[in-house]
Amino acid sequence: MAYIMVDIESDGPIPGDYSMISFGAVLVDEHLDMTFYGKLKPISDKYILEALTVSGHSREETLGFEEPKIVMENFANWIKETCKDRPIFISDNNGFDWMFICWYFHHFIGTNPFGFSSQNLGSLYKGIEKDTFKTFKHLRKTKHTHNPVDDAKGNAEALLTMKKEFGLKIKF
């Protein structure tokens, strides 16, 4: 299996009514050098300024981003070219990140290369520690900047640390 760590930034809480502004993905392996970065033009007139501000982009700037269909086609092609095996979606907050990625794939290209499931990095770490109050965030090396590639890379580093230091049985 090929684990793809994903992080998204949006201008609101749900896809369709609001827009995914950008996302980053990294193939989880020892190098973390296979990345994808997409910046998407909004699909709705609605946005929440506080949510948009987290992305580091202004509304005016996002209006110049690429058409979502093109970005999602490019991402699907990147997944196909990058993954030698079945791609597995994993993220820090898969309830949020998956919701947007899955919706955008199905809405704009009619299929999701990840299939119908995702994995949550935080829940995985809680299971390793056997403590639902634990967080993995101290295992990141790359600073969490809300640039989605940086954030996906930091989360991938945490997953690699879980394998190395905690003996997590996972194959990359």
Automatic annotation (TrEMBL):
Top-level taxon: Bacteria
Name of the protein described by the UniProt record: 3'-5' exoribonuclease
Gene3D superfamilies per UniProt: Ribonuclease H-like superfamily/Ribonuclease H (3.30.420.10)
UniProt source species: Flectobacillus rivi
Species lineage: Bacteria, Pseudomonadati, Bacteroidota, Cytophagia, Cytophagales
Stored InterPro entries: RNaseH-like_sf (IPR012337), RNaseH_sf (IPR036397)
